[in-house]
Amino acid sequence: MRAAVLHEIGQDKLDVLDDVEAVGFGPGRVRIRVRATGLCHSDLSAMAGVLPQPGPFVPGHEGAGEIVEVGEGVSHLKPGDRVVVCWLPACGTCPACKRGQTHLCLAGFLNAGTPNFKRPAGDVFGFAGTGTFAEEVVVDAGCAVPIPDDVPFDIAALIGCGVTTGLGAALNTADVEAGSSVAVIGCGGVGISAIQGARLKGAAEIVAVDPVAPRREAALRFGATKAISPDELADTKQSVTGGEGFDYVFEVVGRSATARTAYEATRRGGTLVVVGAGALDDFLQLSMFELFFDEKRILPSMYGGGDVLRSYERAIALWRAGRIDLAGLITHRVPLSDINEALDQMRTGVALRTCIEI
Question: In this model, does residue 21 exceed pLDDT 90?
Answer without folding.
Answer: yes
